[in-house]
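Rotation project, supervised by the postdoc (A.L.). Task for the rotation student: set up a whole-complex structure prediction and record inputs and outputs verbatim in this book. Inputs entered:
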Amino acid sequence: MVKKKMNRRTFLKYSAAFGATTAVAGVPTLLRAQPPEIKIASIQPVTGVIADIGISMRRGNQMAVDDINARGGIKSMGGAKLKLLLADTEAKEEVARTEAERVIKEGAVCLVGPFLSGNAMTIATLCEQRGVPFVMDVAAADDITRKGFKYTFRVFPTTTKFADSMLFYMDKIMKEKNISKIRGVLTNTGDLFGRVQGATFKKAVTDKKFPIELVGHIEYPLGIQDLSAEVSKIKALKPDILFPVARPGDAKLMIRELYKQRVELQGIISPGSPGWYEPEFIRDMKALADYVMDNVPWYNPIGKMYKEVNAAFSKKYPGKYIDTNSGYAYLGVLVIADALERAKSTKADDIVAALQKTYFKQDLMVGLAVAFDSRGDNINADTAMIQIINQSLKVVLPEKAAEAKYIHPMPKQLWERGV
Amino acid sequence: MNLNLILQLALSGFLLGGVYSLIALGLSLIFGVMRVINFAHGEMMVWGMYVAYTILLWTGVDPFFSFLVSAIILFILGYLLQRSVVNRILDFPEAMQVLPLVGMAMVFENSARLIWGPDYISPQSKFALSSISLGPLTIDTPRLMAFSIAILITVLVLVFLKKTDMGKSIRAAADNRLGAFLVGTDVNKVYAVCFGIGTACVGSAGGLLVPIMPLSPYIGAPFTLISFIIVILGGMGSLTGAMVGGFIIGVAESIGPEVITNIFHGLGVDLEFPHTMKQVVSFFILIVILILRPQGLFGGKKR
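Outputs recorded:
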């Protein structure tokens, strides 16, 4: 075979020919005025240190899209179907940006994602530059919506909301159990969410002069594989209660280390973080998971929508259930669909205008209808206090939604549970 | 200064350091013989973990026994990887050797995700939760066992290299590839076996870590990095260096933040050295050692 050498001229010739062909081929697509599908993009950390949650969220996004399409798509736009473009941030900020850029180029009219606050920050910045609406299903760090971004909305509670609810519930527990003062140790992961969640809780405690004395604040990297040093330090500080902001891997690691090092605690109460409610946590930790409390934006156990969605989700993914993350991932897409329905258009400004006027009634998650304030935060997002009792998850506070009464202090230390 | 706490930290760091040594030994052996850095090292360790986990799940055999199976399977994987990929890139410039192995790391990582799923798993095993109290100190039994077995394997590998014919061939091929070839050594086979032994080391280390750490497909990369630090610190290709380096890094990362915080407080500065910056301690030690001894602690003559 004769090898042809590519020089500048031939290159120009070929690229001109290529350009011309694509331009001609592109015309028919332009002629189709109303495409029968609307592209939105799910951008989640599907691989990398937090892949377990990322996948769970992508499933939530996808199931919502499928359900909407099954119900006839966006009716105000002639039943246009939603098409979910999939993007993976790999839990890295720089990848989040390039992936967001890619889906925008591929024609996504709105982005939903991305679980990690750090990733959310870069995506929100990019969406602002490109003028593409971005609905955060999960991502809590306050700062993301404090930049005056016009295109960014958040269905999830902010860290400030987390801290307020946490202290509200702690106040209740302390009053009911006649506890006047708590010695606490706070731990958090070192990513943006972990740091902000930890710092906001600490600030709320100090600002409100709340009777929790935080004798230690330990921060460790996300994806850590050895917590022995950190737990030794917790033991030396002798706290009554441990307030951990964790993720699935380190939550398990921490429970085991607390067990092995025989750290005596009255309770493990998370100010709000994953790690403590996933099915794998209870499956692997068994009785050690008991009595852990977590202040989370939980599903609404009595909600009709929750029951339907959860039944379908558990059927499709055996062993899994709707939790904070998959639930909000589902809700995020519903909010976008609702905005598209009212906007009757896929233009960014129309979608933003519709999102601003959102009043989306739901009983999937605790909290009332989704409605955004001027910053784009969901004013009705709320948390519940959940506790693992006999290896099953129960909402324990607020009382009106409670499935069981909370147990505090822990009646048995970790090593007394015969595991 | 809380002396008990420092002692406790030093102890857990030391025990984990033993396992680090075994991981780094594999990397160092491969580098010492083939002058190739196995960038898929940590990911192969994760495969070792998953093999031991699968055996535990199916048969109930504890990882402290099934690590042998991890070692065998990883030996085979390593052998095949050497024959199919690494052997072709031995004479390439170093920068070009990096890419195929980083690529293999991705293949291992994502195939583990496809096979075992993305969730963090902490399987229940017999010794996972036991510990021994020694006055104010707590000795973590699985750590102690992992440490002892890791040291035993390390010694066995060293004896193998010194005493057996294959071991001698490996050392000969490491010393002078052409010379070994000329006296009739099947250098390709020796290389493949050596790569296999290196990955078997890291595979067995993976098995030993199952009762200590939760597994997920994506935890490998930090271990590649840490074993790389250990190997540079101990001296590229030096097996003793890998062992000593493992202990240094294990202890330093464990006590580092606490000691530095105490130094801050001693100087009257109200600062906490955050645990998020643990790796700064390792890298700092690495830099200091590289300044004082650029060939590493036990690095011999330059190439």
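Student's summary: The first strand of chain A starts at residue 37 and ends at 44.
Supervisor addendum: The radius of gyration of chain A is 24 Å.
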